[in-house]
């Protein structure tokens, strides 16, 4: 039996169908089963994947308990949970790490086969611990962080130092870490290299930060919002391009800035805008260019020319920037706790959980990077 077998009734944000406005509801949160933990959320934030799934996605089942970024405290644990206990501060994750499967031991990928990214929005036994008005709620991946309580398998949670800044912990639970990991783990950016980052939201700023840590010397950020220039520079960007200022395609503008005008060594597509995958490809060097696609997709992929790939470039997609949910994210959490990243620069807006509707307006403001949800 779980350490608390009572059903908890609390507030949570529910999306009843794609394209419908979200509502604040009373939800019921069942106790955790044997390998699960129930988490009292302390702080959450908004990632573009949440917005895309609220707008409607064929991948998602509704009704949906929204949110996948956040940090909380373990309220109760199932009887088989060994690695976590009541009162631990945890970041819920959307991939796990068994350290035993073929992928985990390969050292080549973070995509654990035992605890995978799930799109059905259910627990590992294909049921849900969350319900509202008698209806089963689905999660975004394995999480439902815009709720006062949620249940997650203990393998999808990372214990962190309780003194960690809660908003910053929320930022590293998805967006920022995805970018940082893409430069660190997925691209393995080499010292002295050149980098282009398309889109300077939290993911792009994370990619800049990761590229700088790896020793990249020329880091060009591309964003149509001039207010992102200052943010990019704080994280380590050396050059900025606003593609709105020119008739030339962004890839050409990146090339113009590069040594010998032959492009960059690495590019990171952080926007999810389909045609920018091709721009990211074209911006890199023939023969050696490496492109990492990490933006949450907004539309079907557009075809790109054979030539871009045949000319020796490598195109790679990544979930969570190639970060292992335990061994790598714990290193980032440690750096976050020691305030090695200027994550306060991401914190531009906040709302109370009950005022979640205001958050969608705040996201449209040009100076908005992250909206924190106080729970
Ligand atoms: Zn594994
Ligand atoms: Zn996310």
From TrEMBL:
<comment type="subunit">
    <text>Homodimer.</text>
</comment>
<dbReference type="InterPro" id="IPR011032">
    <property type="entry name" value="GroES-like_sf"/>
</dbReference>
<dbReference type="InterPro" id="IPR013149">
    <property type="entry name" value="ADH-like_C"/>
</dbReference>
<dbReference type="InterPro" id="IPR002328">
    <property type="entry name" value="ADH_Zn_CS"/>
</dbReference>
<dbReference type="Pfam" id="PF00107">
    <property type="entry name" value="ADH_zinc_N"/>
</dbReference>
<dbReference type="InterPro" id="IPR013154">
    <property type="entry name" value="ADH-like_N"/>
</dbReference>
<protein>
    <recommendedName>
        <fullName>Enoyl reductase (ER) domain-containing protein</fullName>
    </recommendedName>
</protein>
<dbReference type="InterPro" id="IPR036291">
    <property type="entry name" value="NAD(P)-bd_dom_sf"/>
</dbReference>
<keyword id="KW-0560">Oxidoreductase</keyword>
<keyword id="KW-0862">Zinc</keyword>
<feature type="domain" description="Enoyl reductase (ER)">
    <location>
        <begin position="18"/>
        <end position="373"/>
    </location>
</feature>
<dbReference type="InterPro" id="IPR020843">
    <property type="entry name" value="ER"/>
</dbReference>
<keyword id="KW-0520">NAD</keyword>
<comment type="similarity">
    <text>Belongs to the zinc-containing alcohol dehydrogenase family.</text>
</comment>
<keyword id="KW-0479">Metal-binding</keyword>
<dbReference type="Pfam" id="PF08240">
    <property type="entry name" value="ADH_N"/>
</dbReference>
């Amino acid at each position: 039996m779980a350490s608390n077998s009572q059903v908890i009734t609390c507030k949570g944000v529910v999306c009843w169908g794609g394209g419908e406005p979200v509502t604040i509801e009373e939800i019921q949160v069942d106790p955790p089963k044997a390998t699960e933990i129930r988490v009292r959320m302390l702080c959450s934030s908004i990632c573009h994947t949440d917005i895309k799934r609220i707008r409607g996605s064929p991948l998602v089942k509704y009704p949906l308990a929204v949110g996948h970024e956040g940090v909380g405290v373990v309220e109760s644990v199932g009887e088989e949970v060994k690695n976590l206990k009541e009162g631990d501060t945890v970041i819920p994750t959307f991939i796990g790490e068994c350290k035993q499967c073929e992928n985990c031991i390969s050292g080549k990928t973070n995509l654990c086969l035992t605890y995978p990214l799930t799109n059905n929005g259910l627990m590992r036994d294909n049921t849900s611990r969350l319900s509202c008005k008698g209806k089963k709620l689905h999660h975004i991946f394995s999480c439902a962080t815009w709720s006062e309580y949620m249940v997650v398998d203990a393998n999808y949670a990372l214990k962190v130092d309780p003194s960690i800044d809660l908003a910053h912990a929320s930022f590293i639970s998805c967006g920022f870490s995805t970018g940082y990991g893409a430069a660190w783990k997925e691209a393995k950016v080499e010292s002295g290299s050149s980098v282009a980052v398309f889109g300077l939201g939290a993911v792009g700023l994370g990619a800049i930060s990761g590229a700088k840590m790896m020793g990249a010397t020329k880091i060009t950020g591309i964003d149509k919002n001039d207010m992102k220039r200052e943010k990019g520079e704080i994280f380590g960007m050396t050059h900025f391009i606003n593609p709105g200022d020119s008739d030339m395609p962004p890839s050409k503008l990146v090339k113009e800035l590069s040594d010998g005008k032959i492009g960059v060594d690495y590019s990171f597509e952080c926007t999810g805008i389909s045609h920018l995958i091709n721009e990211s490809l074209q911006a890199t060097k023939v023969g050696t260019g490496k492109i990492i696609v990490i933006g949450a997709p907004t539309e079907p992929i557009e075809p790109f020319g054979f030539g871009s790939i045949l000319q020796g470039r490598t195109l790679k997609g990544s979930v969570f920037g190639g970060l292992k949910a335990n061994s790598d994210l714990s290193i980032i959490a440690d750096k976050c706790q020691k305030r090695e990243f200027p994550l306060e620069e991401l914190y531009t807006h906040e709302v109370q959980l009950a005022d979640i509707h205001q958050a969608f307006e705040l996201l449209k403001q040009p100076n908005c990077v992250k909206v924190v949800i106080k729970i």
